[in-house]
Specification:
- The chain has 183 residues and is mainly α.
- The chain has one domain.
- Helices cover 56% and strands 0% of the residues.
Length: 183
């Protein structure tokens, strides 16, 4: 690839920011919270819980996300069936939890989150884990239908995947009181 054809790092970050901005506010909130939990970036309970129910949910998510380290280690380096036995069931189980929370409503949002939680080596496995988790019976039939319809043919049948690390990791942003900021 010639130097003129190589993507500009800032342009890729901007593209990732635009993609994140296209998600609904509940999805954005869930992704930021999940990254705090999964990447151990901040006190997720202190930052994200608005009540006792949300606090309990974050604690469950924290317990489940402890599996991420083992899932990362198990990412297959090839497509041999025996290399997926430790990886796919654990990824599908964790994906089923996240989809069951009702805040990840499309494959693009799922891919955005899991690329950051697991890294670029997981990309080839994300369409399969998403489809498997999205078709499990714990989800309402309408939810299953919407999730499965959200994956494009191109994503489901991609001949290859980028190995580029994600560059934009959204975080909590404090609200600014515009009345006070104007003075």
């Amino acid at each position: 690839m010639t130097k003129a054809m190589q993507p500009v790092p800032g342009a890729m970050t901007l593209s990732e920011m635009k993609e994140f901005a296209s998600f609904g506010s509940a999805t954005q909130r869930y992704i930021r919270r999940s990254l705090d939990v999964g990447l151990d970036r901040a006190d997720a309970v202190g930052t994200w819980s608005r009540d006792a129910v949300e606090e309990a949910g974050i604690k469950v998510q924290t317990k489940l996300y402890k599996r991420l380290a083992d899932i990362r280690k198990a990412i297959p380096q090839d497509c041999a069936i025996d290399s997926i036995e430790k990886f796919m069931p654990a990824l599908i189980s964790l994906s089923a939890y996240d989809l069951g929370q009702g805040r990840i409503s499309s494959f693009p949002a799922y891919r955005f989150l899991y690329e950051r939680l697991l890294g670029p080596d997981a990309r080839p496995w994300l369409p399969g884990s998403f489809c498997a988790a999205a078709s499990l019976p714990h989800l309402h039939p309408k939810t299953r239908k919407g999730l499965l319809q959200s994956i494009s043919e191109a994503a489901a049948t991609a001949p290859g995947w980028s190995t580029r690390e994600p560059s934009f990791f959204p975080e909590w942003v404090e609200k600014v009181d515009m009345n006070k900021a104007a003075h």
